[in-house]
Each structure stands twice: as structure tokens, then as C-alpha cells.
Specification:
- The protein has 14 helices and 21 strands.
- With about 500 residues, it is α+β, with helices and mostly antiparallel strands.
- Strands 5-4-14-15-16-13-17 form a seven-stranded mixed sheet. It has a six-stranded mixed sheet with strand order 7-2-1-11-20-19. A three-stranded antiparallel sheet has the order 8-9-10, with no helix packed on it.
- Strand 4 and strand 5 form a beta hairpin.
- The chain is globular and about 75 Å long.
Length: about 500
């Protein structure tokens, strides 16, 4: 039988997507079975807005053996306990916390206990029952406890980090592990008679032959779309923002352990606090806002002095119809674009990587393998899309034209069902593989004004007073744990100094 194994993998594009892909391939390629080559140009900038992550980042860092102390040192990282959303529900704010609501052994019934108490007149917010939310707003941090009986076991966290530093850090690791980097821009693509790619040629004359090609060329999608024309599904009728401005500003205060997303007249502004600076940006709709208005609003709402001119980014929200076509797999922005409102860009990179590794092909790249990848990856993207669409649709107290459009637009059927089910019964219905779990949907549905009118009737077998006693005990547990937690940046400094890296 002939050898059908992949012997050469070629990655087009560096940045976060390219070097994460290279790092994952280098990890599984031991002992070496295939060569890994990456073509990128220093002259081509990266989008680089993926500075905020979600807890799935732990899977990837653990997979490629990145220690947390390394990450803090090399990427100027801070911790992230959730996302604060400001002015999405009128003049107020709410938090989408990581981790779980309730106590260490509370499951889905916690939400119904709280709903029951609220319907009976309890004055306590759902935020009072999330240690992650309380800690975020208090500027404190501690990692989740390994003891399942501890209230600290309900915590969840991710990171803010400098995406360009993260890519550079991964590049150094990859090159030390045998990944060959070629400097240059793509000049020519060779294909065989069946349309499979066989080689990339750079403008410097390097020829990178391969059996499998990973398109990490960002929004340009040079291989998956430019060569193979896989098609694109436009979701701008649900997600109207199509432009962004990104700018770093001086750090003016201790970084807080959460990302902030503030709604404005025709878009929203992100704020990501790092050790050395703050990442900022404005995501907006060119249909409802001029570039000048977006720029002026962004610059007038910075905490510190801008460190450069804001960098414009144009995009179309949506996805490739086939992220895996023939022997090309699109990873990162080349597979589509979902705006960074819930910090999912890096998750989708590692989601694509994980699915691709589990379906690692032979040189034939059977159509059935590509089809399975496209099915499971599409499901991941669609569930995230619906979560983002809910933010836009369920705004309260906003009368600007863009928000009025969003409030009256038609919605995906799956999202309509989720919202209606929660409003009527207090239940959160999810698919088995959705990224955002019950706590996330609960946080955002409550924050966006979807308030349930009923709860699981099994709770009626327990006296309301007993539920109220349990909830009061839980609030005290959370308050006691919060008092004992260190300040966020004290914890960061301690992690760095304990690794003999020095304070930030």
C-alpha cells in the first residue's frame, strides 16, 4: 500500500492564528512525521484585536505546555473574570462573569431558586450570587479552587494579553521546535489537475511545497477564497457593524480584571487593560455612523493618552461556506469574522485547530473528512453568532437608528426559541456542544432585560423560606471569600515575582 500520510504542512500567514496553528502542529508532531513551514511577511500587519480571551484559552495553553507565569511575562497579561457591558440596557451596566452562579454544588436549579425568590420580592440581584462578578467589580482575583466543596471552585477566568506579543512568543517556541519560517508575500499558488494545492511561491522566490495548506491569511483569505472560491455567508443583516478602529492608550490606573464593552450611538467600544497599556477600539456600522464620528467618539472616551493613530479595520460579519475545501483549511479570520464583543476570536482559532487535529487527514483529504469539519465548526460559529445577535436585538433604552433597526430585525429561529423558553419557564435550552453555557446565557439574557416569569415547579416542594435561608447563606459565603481574595494586580505581581521575573 502506498504511503498516504501527510509529509508537508504549509501555513500561509503568521499572527495569532498562524503561530497558534504552528504551535499545535509542532506539539503533535513528535516524533516528527511531517515538515511544518510558515510563510508570512513583516510588511503585512495583523488585525491584532484579539487581546481579550475566554476560559477556553486554558485548553490551548495547557495543550502546548505554556505555563501561566510565562504567559504573564511574555505577553504583559492580566487576568479576566468576565465582561462588563455598559449602556446596553439603558444607562446601567451588567457583568457577564466567567465561572458559575450559586454555590459549589448548585446546578441548574440555582437559577430557578433565584427566580422564585425574585418573583416573591427578593431585592438581591443575580450578580450577588456570582463570586466571579463580585470579585471583578471589587478588583480582586484568585484562581478556582481544586477543592470541589469550596466556593472558590465556582470561579472561572481567562486573560487579557498583547496579541502581537503572544504571536511573537509562540513564534520563538515554534522555531525552536523545528517550524521553518519564510519571510515574504504570496506571489503564486500551484494546483494539480483536481484543484488541490501543491505549492506556494513567495515574492522572494521561495517555493513551499505541501500536502496540506492552512490559510491563516486573515480577512484576505488568500487561499480558501482567493484560490478556491469557497463562498461566503454574509450575516450583516443580524450583525450590522462592519468597521472597527483600534488604538492603544497609556495605562492610567491599576488594570481591572474584566473587559469593558460600552454601547454608543452606532456601535460599541472595547477596553482591555494590560500590564503596560490599555487596548481600545470602536466597532461600528458605516451605514449608521461616519468614520469621523466613530473616531471622535473613540478618542473622547479613552482613559489615557493614545499611543498611536487609531488603525482602521473593515470587515463583513459572516463565515466561509466551507472552511475546509480540498486540501486547504481556513483557521482564524480567513474562516470568517465575528466581532470581538464576547472575545471569541481566539476561541474560534483554537476551535478550528482542535477540530482539524481530531480530523487530521491523509493526503487524499477525503470529502467526508472536510464535510465533518465544516459541520461541527459551522455549529460552533452559529451558536456564537446567536449569542452576539441577542446583545444587539435586546438593547433597552436606546433610540438611535442602528439600535432601532436591531430591536426590530428578524432573528434566527434557534435564538427566538432560547429567549422565549427562558422568559416563559426560566429554563435555558442549549445544544450539547455550544460554547456559551447556562451561566453565560443567564447573565446576558438577564442583563438585556429578558426576565423569566416562572421557574421549575419542583421547587415548590421546598418552602420559600428555606430557599431564602440558603440564598442568604450563599451571599455570606461569597462575601467571606471576597474579603480574603487579594487585589488583582497584587496577585499578578506575586505570580511574576514567584517565578523570579520581577514585578510589572
Amino acid at each position: 500500500m502506498s504511503d498516504r500520510r501527510i509529509r508537508k504542512v504549509v501555513i500561509l500567514g503568521g499572527g495569532t492564528a498562524g503561530w497558534m496553528t504552528a504551535a499545535a502542529l509542532a506539539k503533535v508532531n513528535s516524533p516528527p512525521q511531517f515538515e511544518i513551514a510558515l510563510l508570512e511577511s513583516e510588511e503585512i500587519g495583523t488585525v491584532g484585536v484579539g487581546e481579550a480571551t475566554i476560559p477556553t484559552i486554558h485548553w490551548f495553553n495547557n495543550f502546548i505546555d505554556v505555563k501561566e507565569s510565562e504567559l504573564l511575562r511574555e505577553t504583559q497579561a492580566t487576568y479576566k473574570l468576565g465582561i462588563e457591558l455598559v449602556n446596553w440596557n439603558g444607562e446601567g451596566r451588567y457583568l457577564h462573569p466567567f465561572g458559575r452562579y450559586g454555590g459549589p454544588h448548585d446546578g441548574s436549579m440555582f437559577y430557578h431558586r433565584w427566580i422564585r425568590a425574585k418573583l416573591a420580592g427578593s431585592p438581591h440581584s443575580h450578580h450577588d450570587y456570582s463570586l466571579s462578578a463580585r470579585a471583578a467589580w471589587a478588583g480582586k482575583f484568585a484562581p478556582p479552587a481544586t477543592d470541589p466543596n469550596s466556593i472558590l471552585a465556582t470561579l472561572g477566568y481567562a486573560y487579557h494579553f498583547d496579541a502581537s506579543l503572544y504571536a511573537a512568543f509562540l513564534r520563538r517556541r515554534c522555531e525552536s521546535r523545528g517550524v521553518r519560517r519564510f519571510e515574504g508575500k504570496l506571489a503564486h499558488v500551484a494546483q494539480d489537475s483536481s484543484g488541490f494545492l501543491t505549492a506556494l511561491t513567495s515574492d522572494r522566490g521561495d517555493v513551499l511545497k505541501g500536502d496540506l495548506f492552512i490559510d491563516c491569511s486573515g480577512l484576505r483569505a488568500l487561499l480558501i477564497e482567493g484560490v478556491l472560491h469557497s463562498g461566503f455567508e454574509d450575516w450583516s443583516h443580524w450583525l450590522p457593524c462592519d468597521r472597527a478602529l483600534a488604538v492603544a492608550s497609556e495605562r492610567v490606573a491599576e488594570p481591572v480584571p474584566y473587559t469593558r464593552a460600552t454601547a454608543h450611538a452606532a456601535g460599541w467600544q472595547w477596553r482591555v487593560p494590560l500590564q503596560h497599556r490599555t487596548g481600545n477600539g470602536m466597532v461600528y456600522s458605516s451605514k449608521f455612523w461616519s468614520d469621523t464620528a466613530a473616531m471622535d467618539t473613540l478618542l473622547s472616551h479613552l482613559d489615557g493618552r493614545p499611543l498611536a493613530e487609531p488603525r482602521p479595520i473593515r470587515f463583513v460579519p459572516g463565515r466561509r461556506r466551507k472552511a475546509w475545501t480540498r486540501n486547504v483549511i481556513a483557521i482564524g479570520l480567513s474562516s470568517g469574522f465575528l466581532e470581538p464583543l464576547e472575545s471569541t476570536s481566539i476561541h474560534l482559532i483554537q476551535s478550528g485547530i482542535a477540530k482539524f487535529l481530531s480530523l487530521f487527514p491523509t493526503r487524499d483529504c477525503h470529502a467526508e473528512t472536510a464535510e465533518q469539519f465544516n459541520r461541527v465548526f459551522d455549529a460552533d460559529v452559529e451558536s456564537i453568532r446567536d449569542f452576539l445577535v441577542m446583545h444587539y436585538h435586546r438593547t433597552v433604552g436606546r433610540s438611535e437608528p442602528m439600535w432601532q433597526y436591531c430591536q426590530h430585525m428578524s432573528l434566527p429561529d434557534a435564538l427566538l426559541y432560547k429567549m422565549a423558553h427562558f422568559a416563559r419557564t426560566g429554563r435555558i435550552v442549549l445544544g450539547t456542544d455550544e460554547l456559551f453555557k447556562e451561566a453565560s446565557w443567564f447573565a446576558v439574557m438577564m442583563g438585556q432585560g429578558i426576565h423569566p416569569t416562572d421557574y421549575n415547579p419542583l421547587l415548590d416542594s421546598v418552602a420559600l423560606e428555606e430557599d431564602q435561608i440558603q440564598l442568604a447563606r450563599l451571599r455570606q459565603q461569597i462575601a467571606t471569600a471576597l474579603d480574603a481574595m487579594p487585589r488583582h494586580m497584587d496577585y499578578v505581581r506575586n505570580q511574576l515575582s514567584s517565578a523570579r521575573l520581577g514585578p510589572p
